[in-house]
Amino acid sequence: MVYKVLVVEDEEIIRKGLIYNTNWAALDCVVIGEAGDGEEAIEAIKSKEPDIVLVDVNMPVVNGLDMLKATKDYSYVAIVLSGYAEFSYAQEAIRLGVTRYLTKPVQEQELVAAITSAKKKIQKNRFVSENQEELQKVKEMEVIAIPKAAHKDELVEKMLNYIDAYYQDRIQMRDLADAFNYSEVFLNKRFKHVVGTTFIDFLNKYRVQVSLKYLKEKQYTLEEIGAFVGIPDPKYFRVVFKRYVGYSPREFITILEQTTETR
Q1: Pairing of strands 52-56, 29-35
Q2: Which of 212, 205, 203 is nearest to 144 (CA)?
Q3: With contact defined as beta carbons under 8 Å apart, do 64 and 92 qualify?
Q4: Domains of the chain with bracketed CATH
Q5: What does the alpha-carbon distance between residue 197 and residue 194 come to, in Å, rounded to a whole number?
Q6: Are residues 135 and 124 in contact, defined by beta-carbon separation less than 8 angstroms?
Q7: What is d(CA 83, CA 105) in angstroms, rounded to the nearest whole number?
Q8: pLDDT at 125
Q9: How many CA atoms are closer than 13 Å to the CA of 178, on its beta-carbon side?
């Protein structure tokens, strides 16, 4: 795809230099407009709907940061240009969600890197926009659903409580057979009849459900999470996770990140 660029700079020499001295075609971009102050830029953003806006901070009429605030509801990625390497400007620009903060004179390599970063953000935002409903379903997914009948069966309820208490350990049906003084065959049949799935299948689903909570907290490594939920082998944890979620743990983390949009 071709990305539409708007150049906003009050110094005409710099503005024209950015427009004509940059190989926009090589960056899959086309300049669709220019503006000499923030007020003109606001109108251009509304009428031309650019994908990327290069904007100077210090401009007459309406400055760059105020322009960003006035157009925060429009879908574009901003790259801020400034003659000031001041922390306060950079801090405010970051708060407004700009992709890059470049000091003038802008070096070609820096501009190319900023445009490349902006394009990646646009692609990510469009993916999220087009797949928001599906991404949200994955983010909020519940791997297990316990039928109401399970809570009415005293023995199965005990088995569920046992799983809740010991899922972090390498438990097997023989452990429950010893705990409740029933045969493994009997417990397996009873569990599947009431819950609708095998004991080991439910146990793995339960572990994956707990791992989703840990992943959303973003505080632990995948190896730690696997160990927390009773699947210490990283490779096997990935296999089990993908079996029930449909995505690998790292893919799920990416989805969590993609559901948070920034300009």
Answers
A1: unpaired
A2: 205
A3: no
A4: 3-130 (3.40.50.2300), 139-258 (1.10.10.60)
A5: 8
A6: no
A7: 7
A8: 77
A9: 5
The residue type of 252 is F
Q: Where are the alpha helices (DSSP H) in 96-217?
A: 108-130, 132-139, 148-152, 154-166, 173-180, 184-195, 199-217
What does each C-alpha distance from 219 to 215, 222, 253 come to in angstroms? 8, 10, 12
Distance of CA 218 to the CA centre of its chain: 12
**3 state SS of 101:** strand
The token pair that represents 260 in the structure block: 């948070």
Locate tokens 């999470």: which residue?
Answer: 225
Furthest CA-CA distance within the chain: 87
Q: What integer is the mean pLDDT of 245-260? A: 82
Measured CA to CA, the distance from residue 66 to residue 243 in angstroms comes to 49
Single-letter amino acid, residue 137: K
Tell me the C-alpha distance between 109 and 204, whole Å: 50
Residue 21, pLDDT score: 94
Q: Could you tell me the pLDDT band of residue 89, with boundaries at 50, 70 and 90?
A: low
pLDDT above 60 for 133: yes
Q: Alpha carbon of 192 to those of 154, 155, 161: distances in Å?
A: 14, 12, 16
Tokens of 95: 């708060």
Least confident of 18-27, 54-63, 143-152, 153-162: 143-152
Q: How far apart are CA 35 and CA 30, in angstroms?
A: 15
